[in-house]
Design goal:
Layout lengths: L6 E2 L1 H9 L9 E6 L11 H14 L9 E3 L5 E2 L18 E6 L12 H17 L7 E3 L15 H16 L2 H4 L3 H12 L5 H5 L8 H16 L6
Parallel strand pairs: 2-5, 2-6, 3-5
Antiparallel strand pairs: 1-4, 3-4
The structure holds zinc ion.
Length: 232
Amino acid sequence: MTRRFKSYSIAEFQAFINTLSIRRKITHLQIHHTWKPRKTDYRGEATIASMWQYHTNTRGWRDIGQHFTVSPDGLIWDGRSLELDPAGISGHNKGGIMFEMIGNFDQGEETLEGKQLDAIIAAVRVLLQKFNLTEKDIVFHREYSPKSCPGTGITKQWFLNEVQSRKIQELSDQSYVNAPQWKKSAIDWLYKERLISSEDWKKQIESSLPLWAEALVLRRIFEKIKLGRTPF
Ligand SMILES: [Zn+2]
């Protein structure tokens, strides 16, 4: 007997997450590589099902360990129920959402690149936004364990730079590109402090912040202060 798995494109994943409501409190995102299977072993759903077999039959877990698996073709596969903590990092699973990236990303082995890199970064960004998390809430397995996971070929700084730089790309419409440096750095700061979002940007913040945007930012500052979270 096997279990079926569903795959999402980046756009489908975003739509799915946007409509999702889960009761568990999410505090961090875990990043892992599978090590084995390697990228070259990937055979679509059968590869996810074989991990499920291994986790449930051999290891005796209640389900596959990870919530999502990102495959070399850039698909995001579903997995363990999001209402359950993952089986990812011994002693550090509470509140986690766990990603496995198919591949062996140790130095000299395989490379995280192309569609797979696009998919993991996009998925991470969608979840950070959804659960009001920051880059500080991204956890590599090896930070809590003597393993190399998600691979010695991936540095944390490089990964965080990808998350950050793609955020800037979202802002890269003409009005941002053409804005003087002082406006860009003000916009970047507002974005970093989560006082504006890419959604706001899509609603046309244009080359300067119009009155409605200033009002929105002020309201969010007051809301943050009310909640005891000073934005400064
Ligand atoms: Zn791991």
